[in-house]
Each structure stands twice: as C-alpha cells, then as structure tokens.
Design brief:
heterodimer, A: 155 residues, mainly alpha, B: 95 residues, 71% helix, 0% strand
C-alpha cells in the first residue's frame, strides 16, 4: 500500500538530503561528533523513509537485497583489510600507519584547539567509511527482511 | 490504607538505597587517571584525530570496533536465515 502523493513527493525530496547528511557524518567522523556507526544508521533511516512512503514491492526493485548484503560484506572485509595492511608496513595489527606520514590523510595535527582539517587522522577515516558502508547495508537489509513477511499479504 | 502504607515504605526504602548509592561515589575525582591523561595528552598528536572519541574507538581500541562490526554482521546473517525464502515443500517446524 502506498501513501498519498504528498508523502511520496516529500520522501523523494528528503531521500537525497538524508543520504548526504549521513555521508557527511561518516566523512567527518574524525572531526565532529559521529562516525561510521552513527552515519550508517542515518543513511539506513533514508531507506526506511522510502519503504514507509512507497510499498514494499516497489522498494525491493530499488533496494536490492544482494547489493545490500554485498555492501555489508565489503564493509566488514574492508575494515579488517585496512587493519591487516599495517602488517605490510612492518607494524602490528590495527596500527595507524597513515597518521603523520604526510601522504593520504597524513597531515600532522598539533596538540590543542585547532580548526580541523579533513585530510588528517590516518586510517581512521578509511575505517569510518568501511564501517559506514557496512552499517548502511546491514540496517537496511534488516528492515527489508523484517518486512518480507508482507509479501504473501499483498501489501 | 494498608496498600498505601506498603507502597510508601517501599518508595522510602528505594529512595534511601539510591541516595546512599549516589552519595557513596565521588564523581569527578577518579582514583586512577593514568590512562585518561595519556589519551587526552597524546591522542591528538599520535592519531591526528581531533575527535578524541573516534581516536579511542577506532585506533586505541580498534579490536572493540572489530567485535562490534562482527556482532552486527552475525545478527544480520541470523535475520537473513530466519526470513529466508522457503525451498519447495519446506515448512516451519512446529514443536
């Protein structure tokens, strides 16, 4: 059952805004409050919004379960892979090998209050992205699975 | 009347219990501060992250986050198993 046209158009307008806000929370996890888990949860609410506004059958055409499951697996293995890559640099598991290195995400940060720079914090942003993708896929697919019982009812 | 008395006495005992609990802790002056001080003094320079919480969660305690991600993954695999499509002729088992 779809909601009225007003609700559907409002959901259409809000969907990209919620996505962008969630990605902002993920990308700025090392500067502002938030991080991978919180940003991923915000993005998952965008999926819930579309499911509420449209019917379950229509939404399964746009949000594919295979793609979301792949996102989840890629996120988890990306997280572990970023941690394991430290072994290639001759460090221990989960060592922050990119921080203060001057390369990607490697600008040194002084102690104390500063303006904040996106290109800092070493592997933390990479891990934030990995966890964000994982939570995004995971929470959305849980909503889809919990609603899959509606398939027989024809809603 | 008797019920009111019972409720009143129970509330009083509960209030005394939680009040004593709150009084017995000294907030703001922990006994061991070495680890907190280390994170606050060196976390920003060592990890380059202005957000100290993220520095602790994703760097100093990366294993904790790894466990969290694994728990989330296992929960979703469990949900997927519960709500999977039934094969031909397969039914839920009734106890």
């Amino acid at each position: 059952m779809r909601m009225s046209r007003i609700v559907r158009i409002a959901a259409d307008i809000l969907y990209p805004a919620v996505l962008i806000f969630g990605l902002y929370v993920v990308a700025h996890g090392h500067l502002t409050p938030g991080g991978g888990f919180q940003g991923g949860a915000v993005i998952a609410t965008a999926g819930a919004l579309v499911i509420v506004a449209y019917s379950y059958k229509e939404v399964t055409g746009w949000l594919k379960k295979n793609v979301l499951m792949g996102q989840e697996v890629i996120g988890l293995f990306g997280f572990i892979g970023v941690g394991l890559l430290a072994l290639a640099f001759g460090q221990v598991f989960f060592f922050n090998y990119l921080a203060n290195s001057g390369s990607l995400f490697g600008i040194p940060v002084p102690y104390g209050i500063n303006a904040g720079e996106l290109n800092t914090a070493g592997v933390i942003p990479l891990m934030n992205f990995a966890v964000g993708i994982e939570v995004w896929g995971g929470l959305t697919i849980v909503i889809l699975y919990l609603l899959s019982g509606l398939e027989k009812e024809g809603c | 009347m008797k019920k009111m008395l019972v409720v009143g006495v129970s509330l009083l005992i509960l209030a005394a219990f939680f009040g004593a609990m709150a009084m017995s802790f000294s907030f703001g002056s922990p006994k061991m501060t070495d680890m907190d001080d280390y994170f606050l003094r060196n976390g920003q320079e060592q990890t380059g992250s202005n957000n100290e919480c993220t520095a602790v969660v994703f760097d100093f305690r990366g294993f904790d986050t790894l466990g969290e991600s694994t728990v989330l993954f296992c929960a979703i695999v469990g949900a997927a198993l519960m709500f999977r499509k039934m094969q031909g002729g397969e039914e839920y088992e009734d106890e």
